[in-house]
Amino acid sequence: RSSDLDIVRELADGRIDGLVVSVPFSSTLLMTLRDSGFPVVSLVDPQPGVPSVTVDDANGASQIADHLHELGHRKAVYVSSPDARIASAEKRLASFCARAQSLGIATDIARPVDEDHRHGVVRQALANGATALACWNDVSAYGILSQCETAGVRVPDDLSVTGFDGVPLPYGLRSDLTTIEAPWAEAARLAVLRLDAMLNGEEVPALTTLPVRLAPGVTTKQVS
Description:
This protein has 224 residues and is α/β, with parallel strands linked by helices. 42% of the residues lie in helices and 17% in strands. The termini are far apart.
C-alpha cells in the first residue's frame, strides 16, 4: 500500500482534479484513492464505494444464451477471461451459465491465456460435441475466429461463435460477428459527466448501468 500512497500523493499535487479509471475489482490503488477522498469514477467494472458506470453484463450474456438456444444449440463452451479479478467478465460468465442451464444448454468453461490455448479450446470443443463458442468479449471472439481459420474449422458451419461489446477491431477479420452491442462511448461520456458533477460538489448515482442489445451477425447459424 505504500506505493499506492505515493501514487495518490503525486495525483493529489494539483496536476489533475480527478480520475476516470478502469481497474480490476477492489484494486488496492483505487481503494486508496477512494479512502483519500480523491475524486474518482470507475468505468466498466463497478467498484465498492466509488461511483461507477457500466453496461448490463448480465442481461447481455443472457441474450447470447437465448440466441444460441433459439438456433438449436444444446452444447456450448463459454470462453471467459483468464483474469478472474475482472468483475464484468465474471458476471457475464455466471449469467450465461445460469441462463444456459435453465434452457438446457450444457456448458463447459475455458479460460485460454494465449493462442496455443485458444487452439486447444477449439479442438476440444469439437471433440466434445459443442456447436457454439460464446466468448466473454469481442477480442476473445476474434482470437477464436483466427484459430478456427488456421485449423480449417468453418464458422458458423462447424462452430458458431459469439462475442460481447460490439467494438470494431482492426484484425483484418470479418466485422460481422454475432455480438452484444454495448454503448461504451456513452458510458465513457457519462463517467466524465459524473466526475465533473463530483468536482462541483454534486451528488452522483452510485451505479449507472446502460442497456445492451443483441446484434446477430454471420458467425452463428441454426443447427440441425
